[in-house]
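User: structure tokens for this one?
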Amino acid sequence: MLVSRSQEKEMGKDAYPKIIKEFGGVYNDPRVTGYVEYLGRKLAAVTETPGEQFTFTVLDNPIVNAFATPGGYIYISRGLMALAGSEAELAGVMGHELGHVVARHSSQRMSKATVAGLVSGLLGGGRVGQALGSLYLTSYSRDQELEADRLGVRYISRAGYDPDAMTSFLAKMGANSRLQAQIAGRDPDEVDERDIMSTHPRTKERVLQAMQLAGARAGHGLIERDGYLQRLDNMIYGDSPEQGYIRDRTFIHPGMRVSFSVPEGFLMHNSTDAVLALSEKKKIIIKFDDAEKPFEGEMTSYIADNWAKERDIQDLAATRLGALPAATAKTYIDTRSERLLVRIAAIRFSPDRIFRFMAVAPGEGVVNLPGAFQETISSFRMLSQAEAAAVRPWRVKISRIQAGDTAWGLGRRMPFTKLQTEYFRMLNGLDEGDPLVIGNKIKLVIEG
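Assistant:
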């Protein structure tokens, strides 16, 4: 171990604000955050280090994810909470992350990293969090995952929960991964790099092995399903109002009062600082963002003298998108293997705000890039106050199964544009053919 506990604390503390910013902030619902804090304290009390200070944070992020950083920082996304079906399942996730912290797995990975670079970061004082870098989302080893599962099983069993919840939630994570791959047009067995299954490569067999090692028995302990579901009622699902919404091929941000659409065949991804749209097989990538600093002057000057001043700019021209002054240009980026075509646009939205589009394509995507770029920027428009006010977030709605309900019918009540039945089954942990029991609580997604 080349990293001391005091250095772990410093790393976790330094990384905390960076992680909060990168993952969309803290979810602003005391009812949810207080509940996770309570559950975290309950589990921490039965670890081997009950006196250690842990920090439990719910991230305002729709991606199903959970991770831990050195110093006792545990992060749970609201996307993961919406997928979980009981308090025992959430406890299983948190117990697993506590296992990583107690076993000091992040520090083990850092100790195996390039020693010179790590020590340099540690000696940098305030830059100590930079040593964390990509490590907090880097995959753990198989042995580390098994140990975290074994410890997690131990903790949730000690806290009175059924350890089999770890396997039931693993099945839900797998179903979610397959559905998201299907939506994106990928192989259902292909795991997205942002998915929790890529950062926690676990299988049912490994979890069962961990239960055996921990001496835990499935079917013994609390599940707490109904109470947990009720805590999810009205939780934001998908994109948050602060980040804007992706609705099929359209991005709408009611706060900034802007909207644009991408061409057929593009899949959109939202993040805290940009929107990305990727064509099939990523032949074309379109990025939309907000200029970091104000700029006084024409948009042609902004591109030539600021944004792309280090590039060889071609076809620089002033234009207008509706009533908004704008400018467009093209350039090229040479990589080791190929030349990339880049089209850019800057839009003066207000005296102190500039929005930007960038489209990039390698060889085979070049021929279609101009059309896709022009279609995208031409769709950019300002929303009226009434239009912005009419856009509502999606929320989790807890309901009960009624006589005559079917998975197909309940799925059709949700705002997804495709695979509604599959979404309903995934959210509720149902396999195809599983019966719907009248009176049971279920999760739906509604707009409003």
